[in-house]
Specification:
By secondary structure, the protein is of the alpha+beta class. It has one domain: Jelly Rolls, CATH 2.60.120. The strands form two sheets. A six-stranded antiparallel beta sheet has the order 1-2-9-4-7-10, covered by helices on one side. A four-stranded antiparallel beta sheet has the order 3-8-5-6, with no helix packed on it. A hairpin with a 5-residue loop joins strand 1 and strand 2. The chain starts with a helix and ends with a helix.
């Protein structure tokens, strides 16, 4: 089973519908069977990976879309207009989000070579790569073994932050 297929199965298994805060309180699962109208939202620092369907955000005059090929990272509290623009009962919008710890971001920026200006985009999309899918899958798999979350989740989260930066 490939990474996206396994992530889809994990999201469906652990989120019957809507938005679910999982056994890992920093991991949010979304399962939406229909498109939504654009509406206001306040996005907090989070990394989003849509594994099926598509979402559109408007930030000021900028339109941002992400899907299974493009991930989204929000590094500050940011007001947006958001809409799920591709979803159906047969193929719901499925996504996983990881709340980002600002202190961990700052600490990692100090550790990383070549990150001397300390600037980070407030919102960005990036291609989904195996390097980011692998730790997100490992992190999401921990939902099947919640007793492992306290020890193993911080390791996967650190790797995700490193890949994002």
């Amino acid at each position: 089973m490939d990474h996206l297929s396994e992530l889809k199965a994990l999201i469906v298994r652990h989120c019957a519908g809507g938005r679910t805060v999982s056994a890992n309180p920093r991991l949010v699962l979304l399962n939406a069977p229909r498109t939504t109208r654009p509406g206001p939202a306040l996005y907090q620092p989070t990394f989003f990976l849509a594994v099926q369907g598509r979402k559109r955000l408007v930030v000021g005059d900028r339109v941002i879309e992400y899907d299974s090929a493009k991930s989204l990272m929000v590094s500050i509290d940011l007001p947006v207009t958001a809409a799920i623009c591709e979803a159906s009962p047969e193929k719901p919008y499925l996504a996983v989000g990881l709340s980002l710890d600002r202190a961990a971001i700052a600490a990692m920026l100090l550790e990383m070579p070549g990150q001397d200006d300390g600037r980070l985009a407030s919102i960005a999309v990036a291609p989904v790569t195996a390097e980011i899918l692998d730790p997100m899958l490992r992190l999401t798999r921990l939902l099947d073994r919640p007793e492992d979350i306290p020890v193993l989740a911080p390791l996967a989260e650190r790797e995700i932050l490193y890949r994002l930066l």
